[in-house]
Structure formats: structure tokens, C-alpha cells
Amino acid sequence: MAASRARVSAAALVIAVITACAGSKEPAEQPSPRLHSRYPYTEADVRFMSGMIGHHAQALTMATLAPRNGASPEILRLAERITAGQQDEIGTMERWLRARGKPVPDHHHAMHGHLMPGMLTEAQMQELERAKGPDFDRLFLTYMIQHHRGAVAMVKQLYGTPGAARDDTVFKFADDVGVDQTTEIARMERMLNALPAGEPAS
Fold it and tell me: Which residue, 132, 147, 154, is CA-closest to 68?
């Protein structure tokens, strides 16, 4: 009788396991199509994320000049904010590209490759590198405003591309870049206008 009960229990257990597996099979198969429909991405998204790595890399290079070139405390604080924010964002872009099996551009080569909107030319970078003190402050603000406007233009171009910016990460990142850099442009324009009168940046 005990053996009979054991066989019944064993049979019940097998049925329960089979039922559980059958029941759990349905949800396990669903995430894949749901993932693709919820997080679609396009080649425009890939180009944007790859390109923005190089764009951000140049801003970081510009920011590293501030302590070397005798920038004012205000400009030093701005450069530190830009460095902190854009380093984090580069990490976001690199993780996004790697997760999709896309190549992650090397910062140095990305920065010196095709110049994206707002990026400084080699001559402008050299001019910034040579500037010191108040001249550096004025030129840094002038060129960083140009640089930020280019990033905002890249976001607008992405939004204007059919099917692009629907991936959750790309959309949130592009939106953050657009809002944050537009806000920083306004702040830098106020800082530029508050500087003592001097020779306008060429």
C-alpha cells in the first residue's frame, strides 16, 4: 500500500513537472519577438551612436586643455562637467554598440576621421591649444558652443530619419544630448557675453 501511494505520488510529481514545463514553455519563447518589436534599431541609430563617440571624444580633448592653458575657475568647472557627463555617455554608447555586435570606434581615430557637425578642424584645435588665460576662455566657449550645436544638429538629423531613434536607449540618449547640450549652449553664451571685452575669436 505504501509502495502504491509512492507510485501515485511519483506519477503525480511527473505530471506536475510536465505541466509546469509546458506552462513555462510559452513565456520562455515570447521574449525574442517581443524584444525585437520593442527595441528595433536601424543603421541610422548605429551611425549616430558611433559618430557621437568621436564627437564626444573631441569635447573631452578640448576640456583637458582647460587646466593646462590657464582657464578661469568658471571655465575649469564647465570643463569638469563636460568631462564627467560625456565620459559616462561614451560608456553608454560603447555598451549599446557591443550588445548589438557592432564595432566600437577607437576614440582617437573616430575623432580624427570624418568631421561631424560642429567638430573643430585641425586648425581650430591648434588655435585652442595655443590660447592662454582669458584668450583661452573666450575661444573655449566659442568653440564649445559650435561643438554643442553640432551635436544638437546630429540629434535632429537622427529624429528626421524614418524608423530611427525608436530603440529605447537610443531615443533616451539622443533626447538627453539634445536637451542637455541646448541648456549648456545657453549657459555658455551667457558666460561668453559676461567676459571682458577682447578680440573676437576668429
Answer: 132
- For residue 196, what is its C-alpha cell? 571682458
Residue found under cell 541648456: 183
| Confidence band for 106, pLDDT divided at 50, 70 and 90 | confident
Tell me the pTM: 0.77
For residue 60, give the nearest of 86, 89, 91, 90 by alpha carbon: 86
DSSP 20-54: HHHHHHHHHHSHHHHHHHHS---HHHHHHHHHHHH
Q: Are 128 and 143 in contact (CB under 8 A)?
A: yes
Q: How far apart are CA 47 and CA 104, in angstroms?
A: 11
> 32: which 3 cell numbers?
525574442
Q: How far, in Å, are 9, 27, 173 from residue 24 at the CA level? A: 22, 6, 35
Contacts of 60 (CB under 8 A, 6+ apart): 82, 83, 86, 87, 90, 107
Q: CA gyration radius for the chain?
A: 26
